[in-house]
Design goal:
The protein is of the alpha+beta class. It has two helices and five strands, in the order H-E-E-E-E-E-H. The strands form two sheets. Strands 3-4-5 form a three-stranded antiparallel β-sheet, covered by helices on one side. It has a two-stranded antiparallel sheet with strand order 1-2. Strand 3 and strand 4 form a beta hairpin. The radius of gyration is 12 Å and the shape is globular. The model has no long low-confidence stretch (mean pLDDT 89).
């Protein structure tokens, strides 16, 4: 639902590969039961690819925390 609302679709193309965003691994950041940040990623052949990174609040460190969660 997040992707449909904020991206207009639940499909994502990255590096020529089509993904259904809800099928990817990821982490969310919530405040008051609402998603304010989201990161999705794919691991293939021991390589990590971040497919999406969304932060709905600027300058609050959400993107940084999400990136650190993936590490």
């Amino acid at each position: 639902r997040f992707f449909d609302t904020h991206w207009g679709a639940s499909s994502v193309v990255s590096r020529g590969q089509l993904y259904t965003a809800g099928d990817l691994d990821g982490f969310i950041e919530e405040q008051r039961a609402e998603i304010v940040g989201l990161i999705t990623f794919k691991i293939h052949n021991q390589e990590l690819e971040i497919v999406t990174l969304d932060s709905l609040q600027r300058h609050r460190g959400l993107g940084t925390r999400l990136l650190q969660a993936v590490e």
